[in-house]
Every structure is written in C-alpha cells, then in structure tokens.
Amino acid sequence: MYKTMENNENVEMPSDNPVLSALDLGEPPEEVLDYARNEINEDPDTRVQIIEDFRDLIYERGEIEPHRTDDAFLLRFLRVKKFNIRHAYKLIRNYYEFKEANSEFFENVDLEHLQSVGDAGVITVPPYRDQTGRRVLLYRLGLWDPKQFTTTELFQATMLILELAILEQRAQILGGIAMFDLGGLTMQHFWHMSPVIAKQIFDIMVTSFPMRIECVHIVNQPWIFEMIFNFFKPFLNDQMRARVKIHGENMESLHEDIEPQFLPKRYGGVHPDYNYTDWIDYFNATEQIGKELKSLGYTARVVEDDGDR
C-alpha cells in the first residue's frame, strides 16, 4: 500500500511492481493521483492557476533566471512543497543558487559518468520500487575508490540520477528513499569528508532539489560513522533527524520500513544486483529523456531507431 513515512496512513497501491530498467514517463495512475490530492494538496481544478501564479511570482521577483518555466518543470517544485507557492519559490531559488555555487557538479557531465560510477557499484537505483511505490537511491560507499572517482564525480552522478528520477511524476508526488550502505568504509574515505561536503549533501537532499527524500536508511556502518555523522548534525532539525534511520547490521530493523521482497539479497531481500548497464541503454535510447537532459544542460547520446532495436 502507498503510505506516508511519518503518519503511516495508507491508500491503495497497485498489485504489480515489475523489475524494469525504465522510467514511467506517462501520467500517474489513479491511486497516485489520489495520494497527491490527500497528501500534497494537489487539486486538479486549481493546479493550472497555481502554476500560473507561481510563474508570475518568479517573474515579479526577478531574482533568478530559470532556463525553463513550462508547466511540467514548475510542477516539480510545487509538488515537493505541497503546492505552497511561497515555499516552492524558495526551493527553486535555492535550486539555482546551488547550481551556481557548485557549477562543477553540472559541467561536462553526460551518461558516461553515470555508467562508470554505476559499473563500480557505488551508486545505483534498483529497477523496481519499494512497497510504498517509491524508488530507492542506493549508495555503497565502501566500494568507492577515491583514486578512481573524486567527490565531485560522485556529486555529478548523484545530480544526474536525481534529474532523471524526477522525470517520473510518481517520484514528484511520492518522493524517494535514500539508503547508505557504509560497509567497508575506512579512514581513507573519512579524509575525503568535510563540513563543506556534508552541507552540499544536505542541500541536495533537503533544501535545493525538487525531490522529497522521505527517509534515509543507514546500514552496515563501521566505527568511523559517528565521526562522519558529526559533520551532518549541525544541519539536522528534529524532523530530519526522525527521517534518518540507523540499522547497523540489523536487517530486520530495515525490513520494518522496506519489506524484503523489495530489497537485494545482500540486505535480506530477494533480488540480485541487477546490471546497471540496462538503465544506461534505456536512457540513451529514449528520445524524451535525451531532450530533457539537454534542456537541463546535460549531454546525452540519443540512439535513433534504425529498425534493429
């Protein structure tokens, strides 16, 4: 069933959850639209007018120059802020300020970056959703070799993944889940951490991207985790602290939030580690995704349909 992470209210969920390395780029199913009405104040009768009012506010303030102001783009910011125009405006302003302050995360980035980090297993998105209908962004940071990927490259891959994820209207409405597997983390990794990087991670997950992170799960953390977590504590209010769940090696604790049938076997689930190349092949072969990425300043190699596919 679809359920909110905070109040555990339930609404009906579709019975199928296919394993498919593809985004759902169509209109959300009725049960997701019901969730939108009940949980994020999305009223089909007033949505068009609210988007128009939001667009007018952006132009009136003149503080940012968004590269897009079409309905689909602006709707992402309204949905994550439950159609509060004032809060949505602050988010889109933060979004552009973050991009300007961290331009290295967005320059010369293409799907090859995503391919290499995915092949290393450091960052992945399983090709299925959890029982709430949400995608899971999985980091296995113990696999990260700082000599192979810089922190900037990890941020580049993260931002590209999030830009792709938010193309799904389901994700705009339901939000997503982040999971950090810290098994194998060493002092070598710790030396690449800093309060600045912690603030950048916090900005992405909380203040500066139109994706609502409903919960952050941490598993297999070693003794140095507390040292790393100290970087984040100054940024976390009570609400955010409640969304961070630390499980250690206790997979039964994790299963209280994500049911085993929606997890890889390594976390007591049933799924193998699926081939990340399937995602990249899908992205490269989908014209709509290529156009979206180019509109956001990324590059994508769109494969034309030559009859062989």
Automatic annotation (TrEMBL):
<dbReference type="InterPro" id="IPR036865">
    <property type="entry name" value="CRAL-TRIO_dom_sf"/>
</dbReference>
<feature type="domain" description="CRAL-TRIO">
    <location>
        <begin position="110"/>
        <end position="275"/>
    </location>
</feature>
<dbReference type="GO" id="GO:1902936">
    <property type="term" value="F:phosphatidylinositol bisphosphate binding"/>
</dbReference>
<feature type="compositionally biased region" description="Polar residues">
    <location>
        <begin position="1"/>
        <end position="10"/>
    </location>
</feature>
<dbReference type="InterPro" id="IPR036273">
    <property type="entry name" value="CRAL/TRIO_N_dom_sf"/>
</dbReference>
<dbReference type="InterPro" id="IPR011074">
    <property type="entry name" value="CRAL/TRIO_N_dom"/>
</dbReference>
<dbReference type="Pfam" id="PF00650">
    <property type="entry name" value="CRAL_TRIO"/>
</dbReference>
<dbReference type="GO" id="GO:0016020">
    <property type="term" value="C:membrane"/>
</dbReference>
<feature type="region of interest" description="Disordered">
    <location>
        <begin position="1"/>
        <end position="23"/>
    </location>
</feature>
<dbReference type="InterPro" id="IPR001251">
    <property type="entry name" value="CRAL-TRIO_dom"/>
</dbReference>
<protein>
    <recommendedName>
        <fullName>CRAL-TRIO domain-containing protein</fullName>
    </recommendedName>
</protein>
